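Raw record, unedited: Structural maintenance of chromosomes protein
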Amino acid sequence: MGKLVRIEVENFKSYKGNQVIGPFHKFTSVIGPNGSGKSNLMDAISFVLGVHAVHLRSQNLKDMIYRSSALREDDNTPSTIRSPRRAHVLAVYENDHGHEIKFMRIVNSNGQSEYRLNDRQVSYADYNKALEKENILVKAKNFLVFQGDVESVASQNPKDLTRLIEQISGSWDFKEEYETLQKEQERAIENSAHAFNKKRGVSSEIKQYQEQKTEAERFEALVDERKQLVVQYLLWKLFHVEQKIHVLEADAEKKKISAEGATEDQLKLEDQFKMARKEQASIHMERTRRELQIKKINNDLNELRPATIGMDEKAIHLQKRLEQTKTNGERVKRDHDKQLEVVKGLEQDLENLNIESTSYEGKFITNRTKQQLFLSEFCLKQIIKLISQFAKYRYSPIEAVEEQQQLHNLQRQRKMELEDVERKRSKLEENKTRLAQLAEDSRQITEDGTILTGDLQALTKQLTIRKQEANALVREQVELNERLQVTLNKLLEVNADRRESEKERRANESLAMMKQIFPGVHGKLVDLCRPTQRKYEEAVATTMGKTMESIVVDDQKTAMECIQYMREQRVGTATFLPLNGLSVPSINDRFRNYTRGARLAFDVIQYDKQYESVVQYACGNTLVCDTIAIAKNICYEKNEDVKAVTLDGTVIHRSGLMTGGQTSSQRSSRWSERDVEDLMRTRDKLMAELNELSKQKRMGSAEEQAKSDCAGLQTQLEVLQEEITAAEHRLMDVNREAQHLQTNIANSEPLLEKAKKDLETINISIEQVEDRLAVIEDRIFSGFCSSIGVRTIREYESLQFGLSEKIVERRAQFSAQRSRLETQLSFEREQLGDLAERLIKLETLFTQDTEALAQLELAREDLNKKIREFTVDLSKFTTELKEQTQLEDEKQRNIEQLRRDLESKGQDVNGYLKEMAKFETEVEKVHAERVSIFRKCKLEEIVLPLLRGNMEDLLVDEVATQSSDSMDVDQPSQRSIRSSDWEVAIDFSPLGSEQRNNGDSRLEREFQAEIKERSIQIDQMAPNLKAIARLEGVEQRLQDAEDAFDTARTITKQAKEKFNTVKQKRYKAFYDAFSHISEQIDRVYKDLTKSATFPLGGVAYLSLEDSDEPYLEGIKYHAMPPMKRFRDMELLSGGEKSVAALALLLAIHSYRPSPFFVLDEVDAALDNTNVAMVANYICQHASDSFQFIVISLKNTLYEKADSLVGIYRDQEANSSKTLTLKLDQYQD
């Protein structure tokens, strides 16, 4: 075999430019750091050998082209060289003859590949064919092991291993054809089986038709016999039907004559009844007119009386308000006069103060003129000089400056304290005045509230009295309504009893009529059974319920006939219980002696034996219990699913619901006409009393007025109470402030006394200082004083400045007193204005209320006049109404008597009509029976012998068929056309004399028995009457089925042959590969695992899951490392799995070995020991005909290689570069 010499790459992945990698020897190891481009070399070999891009760690082929930007570590480094637009890989291969073959694959920037063989462009098919010629299989990838393939092989399941061997062996190429031919074979087998079954079915059908032919001939003979019997039976039945029609029509005619006579009498009574009703209506109309007049007058009175009451209440209210207004006015007038005196007094005090102030100013000016000295200019200069000289001396440190300053401070403090005390005293006086005013206002508001409260209490008392009167009216009205309701209920019972009696009478008459017409009617269930003891009557009645009124009949046919009769007679509804058609529940014997005091309702009823099923149907498994406690114990405590009924009629249903109780099973008592009249008179009397109460109630509008007045007074009282509360709050505030001021005054007086004492002490000191200063002043100012004629300088200052200080102080006192009087006068004037305004409002209100009261008296007088007029008319009309009512009652009694006579005569007419209707119904029933016979003949094509007419002339209408299980009466159906109207005459000559004279049902049962016997025989045969005609067609079908079966069998044989041929090819290809691999796997695994310690190595073998068609199931791979027991592959360690997987890959490669084998990091998961064993294996098997190229990172492996290809990263060129080193010269 050949070998791979070298690889040339140009711009492929990380390899920039054109680079030559190699040469490759029999064992070449590719080494280099991670990221240098080792796996890209693997991709380059795979790429040039035609492997698809999906297996080359790329999505598109254009990703194989070198891109400098993708490999640049620094993204900011500028790229001056554009990325190439194409890449190629050239593999130089040397075959067995020493000739080199160049395989080249090119990819451009569009992702398109180009293949060249020895520098000549070829198609992929030729390219692949050249590779296969050198045993390089691209599909099977038998020349390389990718990174991670060892781990995937180690973890794959048996199915995946089968698929891998199929790809290696080439049996995969037969898979599609195998499956197609398999489906064709299955379809052919199915078609052949279908054709065979069809042939067998047609053969069986021929035999069946031959048997059916014989049976059909016998069947036709029996049908003819039955037809003759049916004709004879129908002739016999028609003969006796027509005889019965003649008899019934004669009886109906007699009853018709009697009914006509009774009808004439009824018409005469109806005329008398109508005349009496007309007279009664006239009287009733006149009475109604009087009632309307009385009602109108009552309405007018009812409208006027509330107005009267309202006016009276309003007059009382106005009078009270006038009295209150007058009282308030007098009080306000007194307050106004008092306040006016206060204002005048304050004005007089202010005037006196002004006069005193003016007088004081005049005296001051006069005194000042008398006492003031007038100095010359020389004297003024001299006094100024002397004062300056004295000041220097006076304020020198030597003198008593401190005493003067202390004196000045004490004088200022005394002045401030005096002013503060005066101010607080003035404020206290003002607050006391204000407090007195507020106390007066509070007293006045309290008085007003007391008066209004008294009015409110009076109205409330009046309202309470009226409410009591209204409640008494309501209680009386409720009592009358209850009595009226009892009376009305009794009248309703009378009417219901009349209706129920009429209904029962009609039902009983209908039942009696049906008993006469239909022999199978037995009667009501309540009449056919009874309880064994009287104490069970209520419980049995409750158990059966409405079923007691059900009518018991023989069969469903009788029930249908009765329903039809009731529908035509329109006599109501009924439930029918057919003895032979009831679904009867079975009796549970466990309940017969279940517990003491309980027994089955079925066991406490007496009945005739033939009615057992009906009684059982009505009662079921219901238990009759003596007490409710026993029933609860059974249903609730023991949880029995059963219905329980007590002796008093209480029911506990199966659902747990409890209903009923003590009720009377007796029907309502019958009412006499006298009782009915008494009830009606009682009803009218109670209604009249209720009307009178309603009138009295409508007059109670004064109650609403009283409520309204009370509500108004209540509102006023709430307002006054709020004002009183506000005044009390203000009074409390003033009292608190006054107390605070009094406390301050009490605290200030001791301080003032202390300040006065301190001031006296300082005054003494000041006098001492002033005495010393006086000596100095006298010495300094002695000459000046002599010149102006005064004794001392102090006398001069007193004359010159003392009057000014006094006038200033006095003026301040006058100003403070004037301000206080003006403030108080302003407040009192405001109070006076408020009182004057309030007085004017009260006078205005008094005038308005006086005028309103006068107008109200006039209106009340007019209203009373109208009421008197209405009262006179009401008395007159009431008398007339009483007379007309008596007359109407007399007419009503006459009408009632005529009505009773008319009802009695009507019952007689109805009796005649019912009897006539009974005969007519019988006639119609017999006619319907005749029609039914003719319909049967026409529908079933039965030919009767005729004397006249034709069967086609029969007008047989379609009558709706009623369902057999419906027992209730439905709407009346349309009657059939009478057969006597048909132009057809039956020939009864075939009937013998015995059949003509004997119309008994026994003969009918004999006819029906013979017909039924023939029908049973016919029904049991069920022949195929078309068997003879179809026999010939079936024979032809048999021939066609045989031909189709032969054709299908031939096609099936051909499909089997084709399928077996492909199956054998696929089996041979697969089994040849499997046999080889199975033989090699143990040897390879031993070579990989043997060592000095374990010279025999491990054991490995393959086993098929399906030996007949192994490619359809999985292949199990078992490997046992040295000195270890058998175990599944999943239980081996990671290294053991990798060695086993590598052995499998090498064994598979040995089946159709390629000239070289490329392994990418197959030792990644192996420890050093296993790596050394793999390296030894490669060294032993590497040769000129079997070349190994291994990518590895472990020196234990690559140091044993013949040569090394080192791959590194050239950072400057941003490309992967290679170095080659031959190691055989370095081996030990």
